[in-house]
Amino acid sequence: MTSISTLANYPAPIRILAFLLLLSLLWLPLAAPIALWSRDPNQTTIWVMSLLFVEFVLLMRWWGQAIYRDRQIFQTYGLGWNLPNLQDFLRGLGWGLASLTLMFLLQGALGWLRWQLPTGDFWRIALEGFVIAIGTGLAEELVFRGWILRELEHDYSASVALGANSLIFAILHFLKPLPEAIRTFPQFPGLVLLGLILVWMKRSTRSQRRTAVSLQTQAGRLGLPIGFHAGLVWGYYLLKLGELTRLTNRAPDWLT
């Protein structure tokens, strides 16, 4: 344990890579047999990604205790199960849905899409999309605005951590074949902007706690970015898979 704890003295990129290496060593021996034996690609994806997230959470708990002597690492990351976080989540969910709806309304006004009546499966799609959106928002925000942001803030200034976190978020969401990456590159600044917004949302919930010797600023809560992220995913799921809109092909694909 003593040798592991010395990782806290290494630069943030080394700590992040060490964590990912440990996670890979734990995940691959279990994920590989599932991928080889499963005949359904969709089921395979669900199982291996669920396994990855469970192992990530367990490793994160161990990481907090072993590296930082922190037995409440999830609270440190901002994932407290409390009323303020729930209120933040609901507010963020509403903001995410409203933001995406406004964007699609603008596209409709410009003639880029047309609105349609929902299909008979709309409510099933809505429930399915809500579950997927919550899972996606929780997992990605715990990774990016929780773990990675905290590792960066441990070493760097707030502005450097903000920029680095947003770039990492955008790059990892832009991993695709080179021709497709070039074709859709105008979307990349939007991903960077989204990363910035999600960090700002977390930091907007920071509070101060007075100790015997100083006034300490808390890291902020994840409820707001989780809700906003989930709102965007859920809204997109409803509008696209729920077939509420139809493209008119009057604008490039990367714009719609």
Give your account of this protein's structure.
The chain is mostly helical and 256 residues long. The protein has 2 domains: 1-71, no CATH class; 80-255, no CATH class. Helices cover 70% and strands 5% of the residues. The protein contains 10 helices and 4 strands, in the order H-H-H-H-H-E-H-H-H-H-E-E-H-E. A hairpin with a 4-residue loop joins strand 2 and strand 3. Helix 7 (158-172) crosses helix 9 (188-203). The protein is globular, with a radius of gyration of 20 Å.
Number of domains: 2
| Large-scale geometry | globular
The largest sheet has its strands arranged as 1-4
> Count of helical segments?
10
Which whole number gives the mean pLDDT? Answer: 90
The radius of gyration computed from the alpha-carbon positions, rounded to a whole number of angstroms, is: 20 Å
Largest sheet: 2 strands, antiparallel
Helix content: 55-70%
Regions with pLDDT < 50 over 5+ consecutive residues? 210-216
Briefly note the structural class of the backbone.
mainly alpha
SSE sequence, one letter per element:
HHHHHEHHHHEEHE
Strands, count: 4
**What share of residues are in beta strands?**
under 5%
State the end-to-end distance. Answer: 51 Å
List the defining traits of the structure above.
single chain; 256 residues; mainly alpha; 2 domains; globular
Short description:
With 256 residues, the protein is mainly alpha-helical. The chain has helices spanning 2-5, 12-37, 41-68, 73-77, 83-109, 122-155, 158-172, 178-183, 188-203, 223-240; strands at residues 113-115, 208-210, 215-217, 245-247.
